[in-house]
Amino acid sequence: MLESKLNRRFFLGAGGAVAGSIALGGLGSSAALAAESGMTPEKVLANLMAGNKRFISGKAKHPHLSRERIGDVAKGQHPLAIILSCADSRVAPELLFDQGVGDLFVNRVAGNAVDPLLLGSMEYAAEEFVPPLVMVLGHERCGAVAATQGCVRSGGTAPGHIQLVVDALTPIVGPYANDPDAVEKGVQANAKAQAAAITAQSAIFREKVEAGHMKVVSARYDLDSGKVTLLG
Ligand SMILES: [Zn+2]
Predict the structure, then answer these.
(1) How far is the CA of 99 from the centre of ligand 1 (A)?
(2) Topology of domain 39-230, per CATH?
(3) Ligand 1 centre and the CA of 30: distance in Å?
(4) Element of type H or E holding 146
(5) CA of 157 to the centre of ligand 1 (A)
(6) What is the pairing mode between strands 133-139 and 81-85?
(7) What is the pLDDT of residue 158?
(8) Residue 152 C-alpha to ligand 1 middle, in angstroms?
(9) Is there a contact between 130 and 78 (Cβ–Cβ < 8 Å)?
(10) What's the 221 CA to ligand 1 centre distance in angstroms?
(11) CA–CA separation, 210 vs 220, rounded Å?
């Protein structure tokens, strides 16, 4: 990453021109990289869903884990997708999509919630690699959603910094707190809302999506079956 294009643009820029040169460089390279790779959002999504099918049927190929692959991606990475998923130990994107080293740029946090620091991490990948697909991946029985709804019902708070997760999720999953299917409805609403937040809060993502170079989707991982289902 030290030799990255973004860093070169940043360090080569001067004074007030730096921000402008990053923005222009990003837009220019976006079109070039998207055309160069030949990968479309649809192709990448089909690739991931095929990998998930292998995973759930016990036919995972465990691709891109050879020493040769490690050496190849050490020289430069070209991830196919940016994934925002929950930190839950059962929701590991590389495994459940049967991908390998250098395939996915994964951001994980409890409740798969977008905040400014996380969005910065995702924007870095968007500018640097222009992967055609961004996926927010929520999951069945998410503990972060359940804990948030528990706080809403009790009027209590969570200990320590966990309250920051609760605060972030409350506006989205709180309204379902007393629903008989509270957690599931909250999980689906949250994945969709976080996907919408990416383009709403980030001009970098908005420009790439509007230019047709990138697509943002939301999905749900089923803990029981291992299956990923698209939500939108
Ligand atoms: Zn979770």
Answers:
(1) 21
(2) Beta-carbonic Anhydrase; Chain A (3.40.1050)
(3) 32
(4) helix 143-154
(5) 18
(6) parallel
(7) 97
(8) 17
(9) no
(10) 10
(11) 25
Q: What whole-number distance in Å separates Cα of residue 52 and Cα of residue 57?
A: 9
Q: Which two tokens stand for residue 138?
A: 């929520």
List the chain domain ranges: 39-230
Report CA dihedral (34, 38, 42, 48) to the nearest 10 degrees. Answer: -100
Ligand 1 centroid – CA 72 distance (Å): 33
C-alpha dist (Å) from residue 217 to 86, 119, 121, 136, 144: 15, 16, 18, 6, 21
Whether the CB-CB separation of 194 and 231 falls below 8 Å is answered with: no
**Residue burial 91-126, b: 16+ Cβ < 10 Å; e: rest:** bebbebbbbbbbbbbbbbbbbbbbeeebbeebbbbb
State phi, psi for 169 to the nearest 5 degrees.
Answer: -90, -20
CA of 186 to the centre of ligand 1 (A): 11
C-alpha of residue 80 to centroid of ligand 1, in Å: 23
Distance 8 CA to ligand 1 centre (A): 36
Walking along the chain (232 residues) 10 residues at a time, the average pLDDT comes out as: 46 35 42 66 97 98 97 97 98 98 98 97 97 98 98 98 98 98 98 98 98 97 98 89
Between the CA of 138 and the centroid of ligand 1 the distance, in Å, is: 7
Distance 64 CA to ligand 1 centre (A): 27
- Spacing, Cα 10 to ligand 1 middle (Å): 35
Q: What are phi and psi of 216, to 5 degrees?
A: -110, 125
Compute the distance between CA of residue 9 and CA of residue 223 in angstroms, rounded to an integer.
42
Separation of CA 130 and ligand 1 centre (Å) = 27
